[in-house]
């Protein structure tokens, strides 16, 4: 296999989604119109149905194909947001609000009180510029921290904005009869609109921008315009962001020595070179998420979990996922199970026969590992010595703010986009994550880059580089994942099927070590904690500081790290998450040594390090780590 063409990192800038939508729209309709104006069948020949998923006559029916093409086009223009989903949410909210005169009265009274508060504050400020604020920004809101915002009239402008923001929160929440999902959607959209209209985002109402503009004679705005043009060209041409060249897999990140010992159409299996005279008997298999590249767990050497494990005497295997293209549209969840986890286990069993595996799954990889463990337990195959789940959910009813984008209408639009192009583009997923933190990831960059004329975004460290190195998601797999797990919660509720029969998490007998993070907005820790509800095995649960990514990358020696941990033996009663949190005090330091000690306590001892691969068993070394798939763009 020849090395894949190296393309730049996929980074989403403030307006990249619009550039991407425009380019995709032109591509789609250019293909569509090129077919001609003959029969209906001919007109829709440019967007054939997928070969295997879903198998339905409607897939080749021209009117239905036309509907899907229209949805795909609209979805690109709206960044994957379904207008019907928004309309349903707002209809639910508006109809119930209209039938709630008491709520109307409360909102009217609040509006009057806030107007009086602002007017009173205006009078106080005129007499005493240092008087207390009438409303404090939220702790996480640092838009108005600069001293310039305390000067008249900007103080009144932002205080009025915060009061208005508070009123709209009251107006979009707490209305009887509105479904929880619709309430969250309406409140979220209102917050996005308010964030867009913040006085920070406009030259005339931002004192920091005005100060720089006057001092530089408007040169900041000229630089900002050049930055905007540069970002537009980069987004349209797929150019890499500043600083990305310093973090190439195999050069400065993903540099732990090893060999690729197996490759199929979906994975490469990397076996890392031992660095100790003896290694623990049980190898470790790491199953990373396929939404990003595997080297989140093998960043620069000082931040590499792989290097840390190898240094402690473990034989480590890593799955590196192929970055799908349109040709992989029919890869499904079963393919990720069989070509991914099960093929990797088969290879490890040939290279190190007679040893169970300590398996680790991160994020989506942890969910897939849970499915694999339940499936193998159902089949009576004791492949795992232990199972470790990092920021991985098995229940999706409280899956954080990402559930805002998950309902039937949203999935229909998303599936039609994927049906048209064969995969979910990296920008769609990145755009969704940006919206969840729009102040930090969109508007602060707009102000810095385009109004201040500075460069707010530059890749400056390994985790940032990894975060920019996204992958695509094949149509069938992503549709199955969102519908079967997110929307229907089949795994947690015992309906998820492999080989036509359900797999049940309570069948898992290997001890489980689960790690969650305190500020995770992708896999909230209370959601991850639910592993305790559906397992009947020994469970160790650890909650660490940090978020979904930074909390997992916690090498010993880092400052301001803490965690709390508990052990629940088989047969112990369930403890709810809030009681658990109060009952387990925090400990300073990294969680890595605690987990490594736990792994080693499960081991049968140490042996001579195994060879890399096994030519006799059909697993020769195919090339040095990090392999080829991690370089695919």
TrEMBL record:
UniProt name for this protein? Polyhydroxyalkanoate synthase
Name the source organism. Answer: Cereibacter ovatus
Q: Where is the Poly-beta-hydroxybutyrate polymerase N-terminal domain?
A: 67-103, 140-309
State the InterPro entries in the record: AB_hydrolase_fold (IPR029058), PHA/PHB_synthase (IPR051321), PhaC_N (IPR010941), PHBC_N (IPR022211)
Tell me which Gene Ontology terms the entry assigns under biological process. poly-hydroxybutyrate biosynthetic process
Which Gene Ontology molecular function entries are recorded, alphabetically?
Answer: acyltransferase activity
Give a yes or no for keyword Transmembrane helix in this entry: no
Per UniProt, the keywords (alphabetical) are: Acyltransferase, Transferase
Lineage, opening ranks: Bacteria, Pseudomonadati, Pseudomonadota, Alphaproteobacteria, Rhodobacterales
